[in-house]
């Protein structure tokens, strides 16, 4: 049987990491994969998580299965973090949250839920979007269509085109937006724009799905939730896919959640029963450790405070590197206005580098960037920024 299997194409981003690892150049720079790095180029283990790990080890928790939707204290904390403790969505109990294996697992659960309950629904994704979105929803059997999002000429949100396109989507379709820190562009709507997006989407009877993988990486924990809180109008339905890979540094623990916001608590139970059904036939129930870590940090005032401090440090470093990159590009004489990089948010920036320039950076300078020109700003350090910007000056010409 296996003789007939064709080799699958390499994942463009993970394949880049393999090429980076194999490169013998001691001065190589990896701005490809989306993992936070500190000023020494290391991905830190957060102190709050180390402390929570010790607490959990001492507590000797049982290793029996978790319920299908995961740890109750974790799913409650997820809702509070996303919406705020006193938000009507939380206090009315009109949301159902399932703990999932990472943000990817959250998206897949939503894909299965859509395919099983709304056959024929099209999911609209932004152009561009995180490359795995299409893989995940296609694998679940959901058909996809693209929405204009990014204006290359101005390196900003193509807001007019987005609103116009949303206004033409048939009722009953779903739309996947990024809650904050859009991957790959780094370009997000303003609060006022979110409000207009909500107006059009609810007038059109569309289901908003918000991929929320970077809370706290843009402008702050509360600030980054503005989009989804603006969408969560009274009685309105929406879905939020959370990931704690980045903001808790828990990449390999696979900690995420899907939250289905329904009209009322009764609907949330019914919808929840279908979500549980989707999970049961996928991975049955989620792993416990990572969710326990997040729940432990969020439940303890001192640990939560420590998390805020560590998250703020990561955010400030990324935003600081944006400013440094722009000033160094200028210093090295690279032509053009790169100030848009300072306005983008999150770990990524659409640099505007062409595919040929990206390839030249890789081959001539051992600098690894995704073909689209998306750079991981967290891969920039005070140490490598001169080499990086000199190389960009060289390939841009
Ligand atoms: N959504 C977006 C926009 C992402 O960038 C990522 C991570 N690269 C995910 C979801 C998935 O997160 P996780 O690693 O938790 O599966």
Please provide a brief summary of the model.
With 397 residues, the chain is an alpha/beta fold.
How would you describe what is shown here?
The chain has 397 residues and is α/β, with parallel strands linked by helices. The protein has two domains: 10-44 and 304-396, Aspartate Aminotransferase, domain 1, CATH 3.90.1150.10; 65-299, 3-Layer(aba) Sandwich (Aspartate Aminotransferase, domain 2). It has 15 helices and 13 strands. The chain has helices spanning 12-22, 47-59, 72-83, 88-91, 102-117, 131-139, 159-166, 191-203, 226-231, 265-280, 289-299, 301-331, 340-343, 355-365, 385-396, and strands spanning 29-30, 95-100, 122-127, 143-148, 150-151, 156-157, 174-178, 207-212, 238-243, 256-261, 348-350, 367-368, 374-376. The strands form four sheets. The chain has a seven-stranded mixed beta sheet, with helices on both faces. The protein has a two-stranded parallel ribbon with strand order 1-12. The radius of gyration is 21 Å and the shape is globular.
